[in-house]
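Researcher: For the record, we're logging two predictions in this thread. I'll number them. Prediction 1 follows.
Model: Prediction 1, sequence and structure:
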Amino acid sequence: MRERVKVVAIGGGTGLSVLLRGLKKYPLDITAIVTVADDGGSSGKIRSDMNIPSPGDIRNVIAALSDTEPYLERMFQYRFDSGEIKGHPVGNLMIAAMTDIHGDFTTAVKVMSKILNVRGTVLPTTNEIATLNAVLKTGEIIRGESSITSAGGQIDHVYITPTKVKPNEDVLKAIENSDYIVMGPGSLYTSIIPNLVVSKVAEKIKESKAKKIYVCNVMTQHGETDNYTVSDHIKAINKHVNANIFDIVIANSRKFDEKVLSIYKEVKQEMVVVDRAEIEKLDIRIIENDNVGIVENDVIRHNTEEVSELIYNYIIDDKPTIIYNKK
């Protein structure tokens, strides 16, 4: 029996979860590499109180990849709205409990993945507490993931402290053994790049012979990517990896209704422009599709089915000898 194609997906927040809900339907060996730098909300409180990495993004990814009863997934994502545990999702508390029981965050994630029958592997980028910091173009330093976007400045680069934070060895192995590496969609500086600035991760990505795919955001994010084009997103990642790494970029080509765009304009967000000439200068193939971004109840989001199908079709065309047919 041939091995399944190994796909590593890197990110955090809701973006990675959206991607994985689609990709898990295909016969791929998926490993999700997830940031644990969140210091806000329930995750930040658990991180502070229990001295463990932030569980929130991990929880969302486990839920996205789970193949279990809808009621169990719903319970895992349920957020209490009263009492001392107000604001805490059940899944965050369960991951924290498992970490306390096993004495290791990565082991806790593996146990929770087994309980929820996850299709693939979920790995925190590091097993240690890491703080994300942003250096603005003014030279000002913003400390803490939850403060970066709200600062509203232009970001030059981000970095992790303490610098001695060790990468999860399983993460390095997954990257080394991967056939394809997918980044995005999601917050550029607070979900995707935080994974890349953990020691040795960027080096492993550069060394990897895997094809690298970037799923670009449909809308800019105020405080992170104001006025960013598609190539600006790519260049920001390249800057942190110190190499031009991507083979293809998947981008939205749909023009949205002005009524919807006006809602986003009020919160200083706009469509990400596909600047083809600049992308081509980077020697990156563009896959544009007018169904990558969709609107539901005046909310613009990625179409998980369309994006995952575009990725899968690219893999089939690129590696036809080792891919299974879709289930």
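Researcher: Logged. Prediction 2.
Model: Prediction 2, sequence and structure:
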Amino acid sequence: VYCDSVPLNPVDEQAWNARQVSFDELLTCSDFVVPMLPMTSDTFHLIDARAISKMKRGSYLLNTSRGSVVDENAVVEALNQGHLA
């Protein structure tokens, strides 16, 4: 699954066995969430306490974006509560 504003063409989706989903669906269905986004006013703390609470318990969050795309305090809290692996 992937969440992107630019959809893949059907041939690539089939070749990669991919399916485009909404951001919320991505959070709730994935064992691994890997944001790969530029830091903008729209992406600042995109992964916050609300987003993390929608993630499956025990899922992994691997931030490959600029640090402030993810709210570090929310991640620490989720780790302390055992919500994130």
